[in-house]
Sequence to fold (133 residues):
Amino acid sequence: MPMPNWWAVRVRNPGEFIRLRNKTISNGIQIVHGPLKNPPKKKNGKGRASGSHVQAYRFNVRRFKERSQVTKWLKDNNVKYKSIEEPDWKKYRAQQKKNEIYRDPYKTLRTAILDKIASNRLQFKPIHDRRRR
Fold:
């Protein structure tokens, strides 16, 4: 399922892991990692390689706007991957609009009032003059 703010790069299937955790490794880059159910044998043939293995990489849309930026980072860091999943751009744009409203909640109210004034649907009545004569 695509996420609205992240490029998802799958390295291994999530079913191969006992549990998964997120870790931020750099500004705008996260890894999903955890211990494998069946870890591979060590290179010398003795025992099993334990520890945490990477399941996926996540790249923030604000820093990595295009697929080419993601693939360039993966190539520069010698990462072998299975697939790259694009963010859900429709949800991302909807979320950006929602965040814009939260940043300035009166903006929509101001624009609505200005639209009514411009279309002459909102008329101002003069306040009675209360000065003594």
Notes: The chain has a mean pLDDT of 79.
